[in-house]
Specification:
single chain, 753 residues, alpha/beta, Rossmann fold, 4 domains, 6-stranded mixed β-sheet, 21 strands, 44% helix, globular
């Protein structure tokens, strides 16, 4: 892995940001606004009451407004990613992205603010005057040394957390990794010798934090593009560099590296040579964090020194130094205790919490994400994975405790156990589980057939599937037609993309023989099978999967769902003792639902309903949810006692007989199943909490419900995912987007692992 492969193209990225509602964030109301009374409470005259209360006691602003969960993500665009000074406006996509990460990982509402000035005083004043609106300030992509001045001044004049993530976020994750690297190599902070290359904001913050944690000042050599920063140097110096100047005879990076225990790189690619690595102390620790390409690639460092422990900023190697492990959770803890600042004690607490998490037993959902790597604490796992669901518990609690102990918490948490439950409830595990599935596919890439290979969406999805690292896409179609479409779309020629023409395939006879053996007693002649193999791409694709020439298939763009399903099931059988059915995943606000059957069986009988419940519960559990299954009807526990409801009651009776290992009950209406208050009207109900698996009484109700939700919004519907087949195949709706297709192709590939 010596060359970086971009996971997305520029065209895909632009389409992603522009499709639907442009951008990545929106504002949503948290209170109902459906009646005149609602409006009177939300605005005039009701809004006057909290205004007067806040005037009386300013601290009440946290109780009556969103301030307690609102962070401003602010930049002037002078150091955007690694792209340089792009200006405030061009930084907006990055700031929106940071706001999305706040929401995704810590349920914090981030608002991006782009400040069009490079003048420090103007910038500080702007943020100062807007600060009353927010519970915290996240500074981003501001060049050094201005970022130091801005942050320091804002921290002095504001009574809310001000945090420059480029500095401190990187420093905290680096410190967490260093804690574990020292533990694994039998060292301590007090005795190590450190070389840091790069003298920008992140590097200086890293040096300052590890010194605060015990590394001796004289044991850290800081280098910049001109070499070692030593006492007496005048060229290219400023007050922040001067603070870390030391007495040393070393003048170059190579000289400084001799005998060093630790190298921290926040500079440029390939600046570290094998000779430098070989000159370091035993069991050298290298954090090569330049992005997108590190100071030295791990495989090169390990070839030079097999005993090296190495981390990078990249996701395609173990031990990624990723700021998302820190800043969402640090702000979460700081906001929840209404901290006046984020101090060193809180940063160090966060670093230790992250480090300790890596030493714990890795949960299944994390292990599934990186099953091709060792997920046990050691040289290849010094830092937790970004999608570890335990981060939301470990880091905010540690930060909150440190804030309270250091005296900057204005709302101390009395019951830390209850706080832990509150944190757990903020995030749903499904998104992380989906990411874990996709990462698992990257670790085990598969061959997936896109049956409608000449369609524009299929081609775009296949290219995205490949560039995402999911495996080899196979397009069924005429090669000239496919290549012509790719050219017209401006898509690159990809070596890993295969194009198969069914009519010209050398496998035709093998597939025909296979199909004839299956269908000869179902009315099909040999020539019928030959025609189907030559002309029906779904059958050809299914034959590829059945006979091992591909691992999975995807179709649906050009054929009715049931036509596609009939063609696939001519070739692929159900799993033993299982039914083929459709399972839709609904990602709604603050909850995830599994809905079945959304694709196959029009009017299931009680036995089928019971089987759907068992199979759906198994999927939910694999994705990190403890299943609570509701078998739905228009009636609630015999009211009214009608014929169709009896089928649901019979299904419940069958589940009773089978003694299944999950909560279930029915028949009940969907409102009762999802509303804890309504459920209290039925104290005999077996569900301890609202349901997360919904078994629908028929195909009509399931499709109406999921399609209605999809069209009206309020949630994301994934699927229906085709379950129960002996070999993986997925059918997308005819109106599926490219993203839908890539997701379903990845899910199909995962089923093949």
């Amino acid at each position: 892995m010596t060359h970086r492969k971009d996971s997305v193209t520029d065209a895909e990225a632009l389409h992603f940001h522009a499709k639907g509602r442009p951008g990545k964030i929106e504002i949503r109301a948290t209170k109902p606004l459906t009646t005149q009374r609602d409006l009177s409470l939300a605005y005039s005259p009701g809004v006057a009451a909290p205004c007067l209360e806040i005037q009386r006691d300013p601290s009440l602003v946290y109780d009556y407004t969103a301030k307690s969960n609102l962070v401003a993500v602010i930049s002037n665009g002078t150091a955007v990613l690694g792209l340089g000074n792009l200006g405030a406006l061009a930084s907006k996509p990055v700031m929106e992205g940071k706001a999305v990460l706040f929401k995704r990982f810590a349920d914090i509402d981030g608002i991006d603010l782009e400040v069009s000035t490079e003048d420090v005083d103007e910038f500080v004043n702007c943020v100062k005057f807007l600060g009353a609106s927010f519970g915290g300030i996240n500074l981003e992509d501001i060049k050094a040394p201005e970022c130091f001045i801005i942050e320091q001044q804002l921290r002095e004049i504001m009574d809310i957390p001000v945090f420059h993530d480029d500095q401190h976020g990187t420093a905290i994750i680096t410190a967490a990794g260093l804690i574990n690297a020292l533990d694994l190599t039998g060292r301590n902070m007090q005795s190590i010798k450190v070389v840091a290359n790069g003298a920008g904001a992140a590097s200086i913050a890293c040096v300052e934090l590890i010194k605060r944690m015990g590394v001796a000042h004289e044991n850290v050599i800081l280098c910049d593009s001109k070499g070692v920063i030593y006492q007496g140097r005048e060229d290219g110096m400023n007050q922040w560099k001067s603070a870390h100047a030391v007495q040393t005879d070393s003048r170059t990076l190579a000289e400084a590296m001799v005998g060093a225990d630790v190298f921290l790189g926040l500079s440029i690619k390939d600046v570290v040579t094998t000779e430098m690595v070989q000159s370091m102390a035993d069991k050298p620790i290298i954090f090569a964090m330049a992005n997108p390409d590190p100071e030295i690639l791990p495989e090169i460092a390990k070839a030079a020194r097999p005993d090296v422990l190495i981390a990078t900023g990249r996701s395609d190697y173990p031990n990624q130094i990723n700021n998302v492990l820190g800043f969402p959770y640090i702000f979460r803890g700081a906001l929840d205790v209404r901290a006046s600042t984020i101090n060193d004690e809180m940063k160090i607490a966060a670093a230790h919490a992250i480090a300790e998490l890596a030493r714990e037993d890795v949960p299944d959902e994390v292990g599934a994400a990186y099953s091709g790597r060792s997920m046990q604490y050691g040289p290849e796992y010094m830092i937790p994975a970004p999608f570890d669901p335990r981060l939301i518990l470990a880091v905010p609690q540690a930060v909150a405790r440190a804030a309270m102990d250091s005296g900057v918490a204005r709302k101390p948490i009395i019951d830390m156990e209850a706080y832990g439950h509150e944190l757990s409830a903020r995030l749903d595990p499904t998104t992380a589980s989906l990411q874990a599935i996709f990462d698992n596919v990257r670790a085990h890439p598969r061959r997936v057939v896109f049956a409608e290979g000449e369609e524009e969406k299929s081609i775009r999805a296949a290219v995205s599937f490949y560039t995402s690292g999911y495996g080899t896409p196979i397009l069924l179609g005429r090669e000239a037609k496919v290549l012509e479409t790719m050219k017209s779309l401006g898509l690159p020629n990809i070596d890993g993309l295969e194009i198969h023409n069914a009519k010209l395939s050398t496998s035709n006879k093998e597939y025909t023989d296979f199909l004839y053996e299956r269908l000869q007693r179902k009315g099909a002649l040999y020539r019928d099978c030959q025609r189907m193999v030559n002309q029906e791409r779904n059958l050809f694709a299914a034959c590829m999967v059945a006979l091992g020439d591909a691992d999975a298939m995807l179709t649906g763009l050009t054929r009715n769902y049931y036509v596609a399903l009939e063609e696939i099931t001519r070739v692929l059988d159900p799993l033993p003792d299982e039914h083929i059915f459709g399972l839709s995943l609904v990602l709604a606000r603050e909850r995830t639902l599994f809905v079945a059957d959304t694709a196959v069986t029009e009017l299931p009988n009680p036995s089928q309903l019971a089987d759907f419940a068992i199979q759906s519960a198994s999927v939910a559990r694999r994705m990190g949810h403890e299943p609570r299954v509701a078998l739905l009807s228009f009636s609630n526990f015999g009211n009214p006692m009608l014929e169709r409801s009896q089928l649901i009651r019979d299904a419940v009776r069958l589940l009773d007989e089978r003694q299944v290992p999950f909560e279930y009950d029915g028949e009940m209406g969907v409102d009762v199943a999802l509303n804890a208050e309504l459920m209290k009207n039925y104290p005999f109900c077996r569900l301890t909490e609202p349901a997360n698996v919904l078994i629908m009484p028929g195909l009509h109700s399931s499709q109406i419900a999921t399609n209605l939700l999809h069209e009206l919004g309020g949630g994301t519907v994934i699927g229906p995912m085709l379950m129960g087949l002996s070999k993986p195949a997925q059918i997308v709706p005819m109106g599926a987007t490219v993203s839908d297709m890539v997701n379903m192709a990845a899910l199909a590939a995962h089923d093949a692992t």
